[in-house]
Amino acid sequence: MQYVPFGSHGFSVSRLGFGCMRLPTRKENGKDVIDREKAIAMIRHGIDSGISYVDTAYPYHGGESEIVVGLALKDGYRDKVRLTTKLPIWSVNEEKDMNRLLDEQLKKLDVPYVDFYLLHAMNKDRMDKMEAFHYQDFLKQAVKDGRIKHPGFSFHDDLDAFLRILHAYDWGMAQIQFNYLDDEEQAGLKGLREAGKCGVPLVIMEPLRGGALANPPENVRKLMEEYPRKRSAVEWAFAYIADFAEVATILSGMSTPEQLDDNLRIFDTLTVGGMTEADRAFAGQLKQAYLSRMPVKCTGCQYCQPCPQGVRIPDIFQGYNSAKMFDQPGRFLHNYQDKISQGCDASHCVQCGACEAACPQHLSIIDWLQQIDREYHAQAK
């Protein structure tokens, strides 16, 4: 296992972090619950093999993840790791809720403190909410009384929102989504570089895009097979991220012992600067190979919104593109069915043309909406 300093905090962490959002599950009374025996064994095996960073959150596995993580860290394992959990901002309705929730989480984890406590899934609106509830006073007090060691935030929004949050407080770390496909999305490479300049260490989530990058479509797989340096799809994804000095830990949500062992093998050799210039250029080729599979060249700019009929045009295009990109027709059916249930699918389009007049990409939006709707109904039969 490779280790790097966690910013200027005076300790190092493993490059591989154990994300506890996708622990092994089993059926109980018709519901998916964590298979506690398997999950605890996996977490402890990971720690025994060198993992020193464990990440959970209030909503993971319907609130069960924190409890299972706490059980896994008994018998001396807590002393071997840096532990992170997150404040569920959506459950904060008044200032005192922040303290109440933190205390509840410490009780579920059965620990007196966590090393990192993150404002969960921050975006512009949630930053407005946290500022209204004086989040800085809460974090400072929680650090002072020893319930948390370092405050941080996890993030899902655009670059401007990331920079606003990054510069608003003396953060101990930040957690962002980052991979070779998303290096221009959300915080992206620019946000990564800015965090580095500010001395804020980064923890990376979704390095495999929810597992999608682990199972590439044929054109991407062919590129990998033809490239002189042989790596699996998973190795390429992890190696790209590990190359950046700004990155401390890369989280992986591991559901099976086989996934854990494969990741442990991969992270034995991944180092900062481990990619050659040719490797970096090749990662760019992989990205373009994925993007070439996107049929609708929608940038998600939202200029077509709001639609007078309530059609969620960018969301429809994003779901369609994503399914085509990763060759996952079932994913398309699921996403589009969700739009139908919300009453914002393409069938509500009356072809008024307002969207096409506003589109800076000059897309044939009406034609695409009709085609997507036809494809859904043809596949759903």
Report the C-alpha radius of gyration, rounded.
22 Å
Overall shape: it is globular
Give the CATH class of the largest domain: Alpha Beta
Biggest sheet layout: 8 strands, parallel, barrel
Q: What's the CATH H-level superfamily name of the largest domain?
A: NADP-dependent oxidoreductase domain
Q: Mean pLDDT score, rounded? A: 95
Number of helices: 15
- Give the strand order, joined by hyphens, for the main sheet: 3-6-7-8-9-10-11-12
Estimate percent helicity. 40-55%
Low-confidence stretches: none
- DSSP strand tally: 12
Could you name the key traits of this structure?
alpha/beta, 2 domains, TIM Barrel, 8-stranded parallel beta barrel, 15 helices, 12 strands, 381 residues
Summarize the structure.
This protein has 381 residues and is of the alpha/beta class. It is built from 15 helices and twelve strands.
Question: Would you mind describing this structure in some detail?
Answer:
The structure is a single chain. By secondary structure, the protein is α/β, with parallel strands linked by helices. It has two domains: 284 residues, NADP-dependent oxidoreductase domain (TIM Barrel); 68 residues, no CATH class. The protein is built from 15 helices and twelve strands. A hairpin with a 2-residue loop joins strand 4 and strand 5. The chain is globular, with a radius of gyration of 22 Å.
